[in-house]
From TrEMBL, chain A:
<dbReference type="InterPro" id="IPR027417">
    <property type="entry name" value="P-loop_NTPase"/>
</dbReference>
<dbReference type="InterPro" id="IPR005670">
    <property type="entry name" value="PstB-like"/>
</dbReference>
<dbReference type="GO" id="GO:0016887">
    <property type="term" value="F:ATP hydrolysis activity"/>
</dbReference>
<feature type="domain" description="ABC transporter">
    <location>
        <begin position="13"/>
        <end position="255"/>
    </location>
</feature>
<keyword id="KW-0592">Phosphate transport</keyword>
<dbReference type="InterPro" id="IPR017871">
    <property type="entry name" value="ABC_transporter-like_CS"/>
</dbReference>
<dbReference type="Pfam" id="PF00005">
    <property type="entry name" value="ABC_tran"/>
</dbReference>
<dbReference type="InterPro" id="IPR003439">
    <property type="entry name" value="ABC_transporter-like_ATP-bd"/>
</dbReference>
<dbReference type="GO" id="GO:0016020">
    <property type="term" value="C:membrane"/>
</dbReference>
<protein>
    <submittedName>
        <fullName>Phosphate import ATP-binding protein PstB</fullName>
        <ecNumber>3.6.3.27</ecNumber>
    </submittedName>
</protein>
<keyword id="KW-0813">Transport</keyword>
<dbReference type="InterPro" id="IPR003593">
    <property type="entry name" value="AAA+_ATPase"/>
</dbReference>
<dbReference type="GO" id="GO:0005524">
    <property type="term" value="F:ATP binding"/>
</dbReference>
<keyword id="KW-0547">Nucleotide-binding</keyword>
<keyword id="KW-0378">Hydrolase</keyword>
<dbReference type="GO" id="GO:0035435">
    <property type="term" value="P:phosphate ion transmembrane transport"/>
</dbReference>
<keyword id="KW-0067">ATP-binding</keyword>
Length: 260, 458, 418
């Protein structure tokens, strides 16, 4: 694999020789990759290729699976996130995550967004919290739609709104990286378009990694694309290069729809 | 010659078997002779005949078994020898049952001299009715069997007929539940109405003095408030104070923290705790917990400390309920989607924050439903309170004092030598009605809540 | 866009202290959970230890060696009558109890006859019936001690009683052995001869009747509701009834049985028949619910496959669904039966709390059940019954635990085969 022509001057996260095992089964084999600070990075590949698994090891969500084991080195700003000194609670606050299916808590819209700030103690008082909630909802493009009904339950929103609420919830903790695990797979095309628009707007404020099985989406929203297959990273490069001029035969086959 | 239902049942089962064989053979033979294909396979024809033979005979047997003793007694009473019998009461019944015992061979000789002349009429009547019964039963069974047998033809839809009967039987089986419910409601209502004719319902529900006496009901002695309070104190307050925190925390630990091996060992242990019979808990409460608590109370200088304290019964009842609460909470927490938990953890919440602020609020309706069911179970629990809580109806909030409960009083009222119609006996049914209605309400609300909650996450 | 705030300072001291506090809360919470589990375990262990500690001694009994010499105190009875059916009455009439009491006084000193059980002579009677030659010589019988002596020998005692026991011990007259009457007899007022066999047999009869009624009814009802029932108001009513019956307090079933079976139908009071009927009504909803879950777990593909080859709906259910669901149904049934076996409250109301000194010989005979025997003994004043009660509890728990273990084993073995 060649990374010569990749220009990631300032990597936010970098992985080196990462293997992930579920019990006996190896889900990820020797993956090394850099994630740029101001970029949207897309992970693509056929289902079961390990892209989501790898994403979940970037904020140690694999810790919640008893049989999962991660080896190799993953750094955030040069710090090993699997080092004993790394605090997983802080790590996840700095590396936020948005899931495949919208998962708002059965609380009010306000409480959903305020949840992270409250547990991390980011707001000194109610006024601060109001500011944080409003800013997060504004950034997630939801403020205008919900500002009059902040006390309604988050689960009462539409699917697309719920997913933007979950993005707002992640933003409210002021993370440095946002991981998105197929965030549009449960949404209709209009809601998907809104989320993609949102990703455009968030670019530059956060390092964003998005897993998607939708190649057009990857082409639309990302600047860097990594193609995973059978647990290995086959090719990583500028999105335009991957889609117009893939170096690997397997990437080409996938892009052109031979399998997947 | 006596009428022995068990032996007769065997007899008609044997006849039904013969009918089955005959039906099967005939259908096969007919098919062979006419060369046509049978609509149903031979054994269905067999079943058809057997059912037609068995069902009428069995139904008659059931009816005859229940009515013939009364018919026999009537016959005896019209005989010459019955003229000297006392007209009413206990003695008359005793003489009759004595004579019946000898006539039907259950005892060797009469115990009451007055019964001796009745033995012969009894024996004769018994024999007579046994013959009538057996003959009628066989006639009905054979008629049914013959009718079915003659209907067998190759194109006869025996399978459809048999399956229709099977469906009928299935429907009947499921009606037993409704019958039981109606039986409970009607028997409780019927006896309660008789009670409320003697004692006004308002007294039972709002009176504060419980001290029922034998004989004619005295006003002001059937006040149920002390019992209701005792039931609530033991079942809904003390037991829940023990069971809810321990049960909830056990469920939380087992679902969220425990390693799979720990879970594998602890769950059966909880099931054992749930499988211990209540009489054992009651004995444990009375033998070990109650004396210890009394000593503790005396040490603290609490007045009215009793060895039959509400606290002892309540604590042990709480222990009994722990597995129930824990398994309901376990189910509810498990029903919360994993995504909820992931969402919270991904924001950097600790497991404890996730559990307390996301999982438990999300599981709350289910947990509340479970707690309501637990309360309903606790207030209906009988043996622990009968053995450990005592029978004195005190209206006190002192948990070291003795209180009594609805269930304990039902047992007490029904286990003396009262006439069945006395106010005390009827009061037990009225208390039973109150208990039934309260637990029914709790159950319906709880099951609704739990069902709604399940649907919300499906 | 509104103004940017400074990025969160995760390394700051305030934040570090906050995180330390959160982790401390986490540890406390986890410890609390572990504590709750341990507390439940401790309750169970404590209960079992108390019962076993008290009850283990109930399986043994103290015997006193008493020589009886029939040459000096002859039993006036014709040896030929010893094989008659009424030999028991004949021997009792000949005054054997006085002879044994006299022998005890002789051998053990003043008040010696009070040291052996008042029923001890019945043991001698059985021995004589087995071997009439005993009447011609002097024999040393190991007779059951009185309840007070038994307790004193097992637990130690002070005062006069203690001295008496010490003396007997010194003379080598005391021995302890398995208390066979406990397993052979029915209830009695004397702990020396009281046993659980009557109650055990009553329990078996009751449970068999309950099973014979509740199992077929429950399974058939579950099949109907799950496989055939149309969705209408009637089936809703049946569903609601079943769910509620499963949660109705057991004592209500006792009231139902008292009003219907005994007062209406006049069925035999205090019998295994009525007890079994009562428990059947109580257990049936539990079986229906368990059976419905087991039937629901059979995948629809199996029904489709059978229907596809032309089976009728009844054949589908009885040939395919029911056999596949049977392990699950059995598991639920065993648990329901175990619960019924430990049930006491409803049986209290139908007269099964009476003192029954005979082993029941039929389903209509007055009988009692094991939990009821425990309840009755727990009320006895005689201290000898304390350990008998616990011993009976041990027997009951062993039976129930084996049933539950069987159910758990079945469940694990047949869980999710498809």
């Amino acid at each position: 694999m060649t990374q010569d022509d990749l220009i990631i001057a300032d990597p936010k996260m970098r992985a080196e020789g990462v293997d992930v095992f579920y019990g006996e089964k190896q889900a990820i084999k020797d993956v090394s990759i850099d994630v740029g600070t101001d970029l949207v990075t897309a992970f693509i590949g056929p289902s079961g290729c390990g892209k989501s698994t790898f994403l979940r090891s970037l904020n140690r969500m694999n810790d919640t699976v008893a049989s999962a084991r991660v080896t190799g080195r993953i750094e955030l700003d040069g710090e090993d996130i699997y080092a004993p000194s790394m605090d997983v609670v802080q790590l996840r606050a700095r590396v936020g995550m948005v899931f495949q299916k919208p998962n708002p808590f059965p609380k009010s819209i306000y409480d959903n967004v305020a949840y992270g700030s409250r547990i991390h103690g980011l707001a000194a008082n109610k006024a601060d919290l109001d500011v944080i909630v409003e800013r997060a909802l504004t950034r997630a493009g939801l403020w205008d739609e919900v500002k009059d009904r902040l006390n309604e339950s988050g689960t009462a929103l539409s699917g697309g709104q719920q997913q933007r609420l979950c993005i707002a919830r992640a933003i409210a903790v002021d993370p440095e990286v946002i991981l998105m695990d197929e965030p549009c797979s449960a949404l209709d095309p209009i809601a998907t378009a809104k989320i993609e628009e949102l990703i455009h707007e968030l670019r530059g404020k956060y390092a964003i990694v998005i897993v998607t099985h939708n190649m057009q989406q990857a082409a639309r929203v990302s600047q860097r694309t990594a193609f995973f297959h059978l647990g290995t990273l086959v090719e990583y490069g500028k999105t335009t290069d991957i889609f117009t001029n893939p170096k690997q035969e397997r990437t080409k086959d996938y892009i052109t729809g031979r399998y997947g | 010659m006596t009428f022995n239902p068990a032996a007769l049942l065997l007899l008609i089962l044997g006849l039904a078997l013969i009918g089955w064989l005959a039906g099967r053979a005939r259908s096969a033979m007919l098919a062979g002779r006419t060369g046509t294909k049978l609509h149903s396979r031979p054994q269905y024809h067999g079943w058809y005949v057997a059912l037609w033979l068995f069902a009428p005979a069995a139904i008659f047997l059931a009816v005859w078994t229940s009515v013939s003793p009364a018919l026999i007694t009537n016959e005896v009473l019209t005989s010459e020898a019955a003229k000297d019998l006392p007209a009413f009461g206990f003695e008359r019944g005793a003489i009759l049952s004595d004579a019946r015992g000898v006539a039907q061979g259950r005892q060797a000789a009469v115990r009451l001299p007055a019964a001796a002349p009745l033995v012969r009429p009894y024996a004769e009547a018994t024999r007579e009715y046994a013959w009538i019964g057996i003959a009628a039963m066989l006639a009905l069974g054979l008629a049914g069997g013959l009718y079915a047998f003659t209907r067998i033809r190759p194109d006869f839809r025996a399978r459809t007929r048999v399956e229709r009967i099977v469906m009928g039987v299935l429907l009947l089986a499921s009606l037993v539940a409704i019958l039981t419910t109606f039986g409970i409601v009607l028997s409780l209502l019927f006896e309660s109405i008789r009670f409320f004719r003697l004692v006004p319902a308002t007294e039972l529900l709002f009176g504060t003095n419980w001290n029922p006496q034998s004989g004619a009901p005295q006003p002001g002695t059937f006040g149920g408030i002390p019992l209701f309070w005792g039931t609530v104190l033991i079942g809904a307050i003390i037991a829940m104070i023990v069971a809810i925190p321990i049960g909830m925390m056990t469920a939380v630990y087992l679902t969220q923290y425990a390693a799979p091996t720990v879970r594998k060992w602890v769950k059966p242990c909880l099931e054992i705790l749930a499988g211990v019979p209540t009489v054992v808990y009651g004995y444990f409460a009375a033998l070990t917990v109650a004396p210890a608590l009394r000593e503790f109370a005396v040490m603290l200088g609490i007045p009215n400390a009793s060895t039959e304290s509400a606290l002892a019964a309540g604590i042990v009842m709480g222990v009994m309920i722990i597995p129930f609460v824990s398994s309901m909470a376990d189910d509810s927490i498990n029903a919360v989607p994993q995504a909820m938990r992931d969402g919270s953890l991904a924001l950097g919440a600790t497991p404890n924050e996730t559990i307390r602020q996301v999982l438990i609020p999300a599981a709350l309706p289910g947990v509340m439903g479970g707690i309501l069911l637990a309360v309903s179970r606790a207030i209906g629990e009988t043996m622990i309170v009968v053995m450990a809580a005592g029978l004195s109806a005190n209206l006190t909030a002192n948990p070291f004092a003795s209180v009594t409960t609805v269930t304990a009083q039902i047992v007490k009222l029904l286990t003396g030598d009262q006439e069945f119609d006395s106010a005390k006996t009827l009061a037990a049914f009225a208390l039973g009605l109150v208990l039934f209605l309260v637990t029914l309400l709790l159950n319906i609300v709880a099951l609704r809540v739990v069902k709604k909650y399940r649907e919300a996450y499906e | 866009m509104n103004s940017e705030t400074a990025p969160t300072d995760w390394k700051g001291r305030a934040m570090q202290a906050r995180i330390a506090r959160r982790y401390a809360a986490e540890r406390r919470f986890k410890a609390l959970g572990l504590g709750a589990v341990l507390l439940s375990g401790a309750f169970l262990a404590f209960l079992l230890v108390v019962m076993v500690g008290n009850g283990a001694r109930g399986f043994t009994y103290t015997h006193v060696a008493v020589p009886v010499d029939f040459r000096t105190t002859p039993l006036a009875i014709d040896p030929a009558r010893l094989s008659d059916p009424d030999a028991d009455q004949a021997i009792a009439g000949a005054g054997l109890s006085d002879i044994v009491a006299f022998a005890a006084d002789e051998a053990l000193g003043d008040g010696g006859s009070a040291l052996i059980s008042e029923n001890a002579w019945k043991e001698v009677r059985s021995a004589i019936k087995a071997d009439p030659d005993l009447l011609k010589r002097r024999t040393v019988f190991e007779l059951p001690a009185s309840s007070a002596i038994d307790i004193a020998a097992k637990e130690g005692a002070k005062g006069e009683l203690g001295a008496r026991v010490d003396a007997l011990e010194r003379d080598g007259r005391l021995s302890t052995g398995i208390h066979w009457p406990f397993f052979r007899n029915a209830d009695a007022t004397d702990p020396a001869v009281a046993g659980i066999w009557g109650a055990l047999k009553g329990s078996v009869l009751t449970i068999v009747i309950a099973f014979l009624i509740a199992f077929p009814t429950g399974v058939l009802a579950a099949l109907y509701l799950e496989e055939y029932a149309p969705k209408n108001r009637w089936t809703d009513l049946i569903e609601v009834s079943i769910n509620n019956l499963a949660a109705v307090p057991s004592i209500i079933f006792g009231l139902l049985a008292l009003a219907v079976f005994i007062n209406w139908f006049g069925l035999c009071q205090a019998s295994a028949l009525v007890g079994g009927l009562t428990l059947a009504l109580m257990t049936m909803p539990v079986i229906v619910i368990a059976a419905r879950n087991a039937i629901k777990a059979v995948p629809p593909s199996i029904r489709d496959a059978a229907l596809g080859v032309g089976a009728s709906p009844v054949q589908v259910v009885f040939h395919h669904v029911l056999p596949l669901a049977l392990p699950g149904i059995l598991t639920g049934t065993i648990i329901g039966m175990a619960r019924a076996l430990g049930e006491t409250a409803p049986l209290l109301l139908i007269g099964m709390r009476a003192f029954i000194g005979d082993v029941p010989n039929g389903i209509c005979a007055p009988s009692t059940v094991l939990p009821m025997q425990i309840f009755l003994w727990s009320d006895e004043v005689d201290r000898g019954f304390v350990e008998k009660t616990s011993a009976a509890i041990i027997v009951l728990l062993i039976v129930l635990l084996s049933m539950n273990a069987l159910a758990i084993y079945l469940r694990n073995k047949f869980e999710k085969r498809w």
